[in-house]
Amino acid sequence: MKINVIGAGLAGCEAAWQIANHGIEVTLFDMKPNKLSPAHSNKNFAELVCSNSLKAYRIDSAAGLLKEEMKLFSSLLMECADKCKVPAGGALAVDRELFAAMATERIKSHPLISVVEKEIYSLPLDDINIIATGPLTSDVFAKEISKICNGFLSFFDAASPIVTSESINMDRAFLASRYDRGEGNDYINCPMNKEEYYAFYCNLLEAERAPIHDFDISNPKVYNGCMPIEVMAHRGQDTLRFGPLKPVGLRDPSTGHRPWAVVQLRKENLDGTLYNLVGFQTNLKFFEQNRVFKMIPGLEDADFMRYGVMHRNTFIDSPKILNQSFSMKSNDKIFFAGQITGVEGYMESASSGILAGINAVRSLKGIDHLILPRETMMGALSYYISDSTVSNFQPMGANFGILPPIVPNVKEKRERYAKFSERSLNLLNKLIKEI
Fold it and tell me: 3-state class of 222 per DSSP?
């Protein structure tokens, strides 16, 4: 039995590197340089398609903690990033051409990694396979993945913003379900009076949108099926009040009356640490989302763990399909890694490749998979994408909102984040020594 990795992006490179460094031969397949996706432009592996920033490097940030955890697993891409970094304040940014070239050279020169440059159309099912083909998986192989996953495959990422529950001002917001259905506390409701609504509406109309690539709207039917809230607003000043912001069936306890409009927030996870803005799929630039959505009563100090996005993104419904080890629930010889699992971001993708690679080796050796504690960022991400209680699954990046709370609670944010990081690294260092 062999181990194959399909796709030489960030996740695929990390997976192959982990496998080879455990003394196991691995075959890495990639369709480059013979074929490129619509977003890729060079022949090298680990190509950074969008920004050259790998986000914050501070350990008391979610992105920085994730990087520090990856280093503990001897991450190839963190090693390359540190050698290719360019000045970027508190962020880790790299010379993207040098970064991809260095990662490619390291992969191709490893004696236990065989690189095969061809497009894969079907899996060699007698082997252990890691699928790491990314958000722009080729149409042919996407059909193969859809078949493997019983159709639970999405091709478009249309997600609303997500905020932490602790940052919602409950002096303005209230708990209720429409007509008191359900438990009565299924939603957090942010009420607006007439003046607040029209001020929000006018700013929404004027807010700057992110550019949309042709391949993002290659399926217009899908795009129209999840209309951005700012597009909906352009259909008329009261369209939102009869749509996602309709106030019917709700009464503001502070006034005793039905509000003019209501923004509802729904639990994103079972712990209730994260809430998403219902119906707020958007293509606004991130800084505009931060500005305009904070005009909503109750969200003045909202801490956004994820901004809304709308773009082409092939990903599986991981909570239905994957275990926390990134193996399939229905077939433990097939693993997924990278953005196709619903982790979002460069380093998030790479970190999932680390765990998928380690667990593929453990499968080959017939030993239990490595499951990281939820208190670690890598463990929390793997838990989130495999958590069967998550409904309407959408991709998620590293953030402190997915970690279990610090007990006792620390009110000051920077101090609390430092505690999160300290707890995670202590646990991870102890675990690595044990294994």
Answer: helix
Residues 58, 63, 68, 72, Cα dihedral to 10°? 180
pLDDT band at 181 (very low <50, low <70, confident <90, very high): low
Structure tokens, 420: 């999160």
Show the tokens assigned to 71. 């280093």
**Neighbour-count burial for 190-213, b at 16+ CB within 10 Å, e otherwise:** bbbeeebbeebbeebeebeebeee
Q: Which of 363, 286, 256, 329 is nearest to 22 (CA)?
A: 363
The pLDDT value given to residue 117? 94
- Crossing angle for the helix pair 62-72 and 377-386, to the nearest 10 degrees: 100
pLDDT at position 334 over 80: yes
C-beta separation of 120 from 130 below 8 A: no
**Do residue 37 and residue 148 come from a single domain?**
yes
What's this model's pTM, rounded to 2 decimal places? Answer: 0.79
Q: What is 101-150 written as a DSSP string?
A: HHHHHHHHH-TTEEEEES---S--TTSEEEE---TT--HHHHHHHHHHTT
Contact 237, 268 (CB under 8 A): no
d(CA 279, CA 290): 17
Task: Answer yes or no: do 319 and 171 share one domain.
Answer: no
Boundary residue ending a domain (307, 334, 361): 307
The gap from C-alpha 76 to its chain's centroid, in whole angstroms, comes to 21
How far, in Å, CA of 166 to CA of 151, rounded? 36
Contact 52, 91 (CB under 8 A): no
How many alpha carbons lie under 13 Å from residue 201 in its C-beta half-sphere? Answer: 22
Tens digits of residue pLDDT in 252-263 = 999 999 999 999
Residue 81 domain boundaries: 3-159+311-434
Which 8-state DSSP code applies to residue 50? S
| Whether residue 395 has a cis bond before it, omega within 30° of 0 | no
28: which strand partners?
A: 5, 115
Return d(Cα 256, Cα 374) in angstroms, integer.
42
For tokens 């993207």, what's the residue?
96
DSSP secondary structure letter of residue 271: T
How many C-beta atoms lie closer than 10 Å to residue 419's C-beta?
17
Instruction: Let me know whether 125 and 240 are in one domain.
Output: no
Residues 16 and 39 in one domain: yes
Helices (H), 316-412: 318-321, 346-365, 377-386
